[in-house]
């Protein structure tokens, strides 16, 4: 079934809306890895299958980020429910507040949405909400503060961008000039790298202890394709959680990826209110955010990556790929929703070749490269445990002098008892002779952010980081 052909019929009474209040406190939320027992058991017998799946989903994610308006995707990855290689926060909505629902933290999208009603359907997820109670859904009928958003409400334009300046085009059943039209905001259809979701916009009360935020815009999804869990958009648009809350800074520290089911968590911290001025966090290196003026890419957090070094040697990457062009293409973004970092074909080949040139002591693992979808992969000595693995350092150098020297575990993966390590960076193998393709050239994923304190300082328009153990 094509998700773009779904028609939702969902009737609620439309009640007048008011704007949310601004929090003046620091709010902390547990931040956990998105895992699923069924997923882990299905992959545990073949660790390279795990890497292949995460590499595939990372590529699908990158293809979507680079082509956000494209409605179809070549979905070649196996279907594993909730195996996003991502991180989740739990949020509670409604009056009275309903049980907290997990949301995938996604800095590459805007809308916050949850599985909605008893009839939520997740197609190609290997299960449905009725047969698997682990899919938590929100029940509008149980909340006295749940209200459908009308088509004339300016907030409807947050998700239907093309119609923002033309209310009549989305309120087709309303009489022109009539301000009390009861037509609801049209259904949304959101396309992600791994699937899609569709539903209606609601105004609802969000509970963030100790704050209560009324009239928060949230998506009530009735149908999803391959996405059983809600998503919390933390991007730069009006509908995102930071924008609606008036957050001036947020930070997180991502637990290490170990491809296992852990109940450990760290904290997502939201700062809002009068702001902290130009105060910097101790030990944090900063680089300015860059703004992409092209509408489809304006939601992303761009940073000025100046160079990449391998073993201290600068990789000679053409300037056009690292810089953000006037057409909106090129440059680097930070994306918590991507697992492995993506590099445009030209950049990846230069980086991978330099790594291969510097690694002479280990044999290439060609069979593993085929099965995992990653390269280069190297065979380690049988007695490598306890030994120092000699692989070149990979460092990212940003505008302003900030340098992110990645720990080995953040760019080479050793799974289970395997004697093989693979570079955890993916590429689309684009034809480098054609120059920069659509969208960002580099997408810094969460695998490379693990065990880093990461800060999005929205007030001062800068991105900060420092290496630390996130436990």
Automatic annotation (TrEMBL):
GO terms for cellular component: extracellular region. The keyword Cell division does not apply. Transmembrane segments: none annotated. SUPFAM superfamilies: Acid proteases. It comes from the Eukaryota. Residues 1-24 form the signal peptide. Residues 87-466 form the Peptidase A1 domain. GO terms for biological process: proteolysis. Coiled coil: none annotated. It holds the Pfam family TAXi_N. The keyword Ligase does not apply. One of its GO terms (molecular function) is aspartic-type endopeptidase activity. Keywords: Aspartyl protease, Glycoprotein, Hydrolase, Protease, Signal. PANTHER family: OS07G0603500 PROTEIN-RELATED (PTHR47967), PEPTIDASE A1 DOMAIN-CONTAINING PROTEIN (PTHR47967:SF36). Belongs to the peptidase A1 family. This is Peptidase A1 domain-containing protein.
